[in-house]
Specification:
single chain, mainly alpha, 1 helix, 39% helix
Length: 46
């Protein structure tokens, strides 16, 4: 799959009290999916 279009993905989340661990797991899993599927242009998250 080739694409010349840039994709910018920005997520802003505010954790509810006692839910921070749950909040971190979901985006972390998605980043791993990007890596496994070989999404071109994937760099990292901070």
């Amino acid at each position: 799959m080739e694409s010349s279009k840039a994709i910018v993905w920005i997520n802003v989340f505010t954790a509810k009290p006692g839910k921070l661990d749950e909040l971190v797991v979901i985006p972390a899993e998605e980043l791993l999916n990007f890596k496994r599927k070989g999404i071109l242009g994937w760099i990292s998250s901070r």
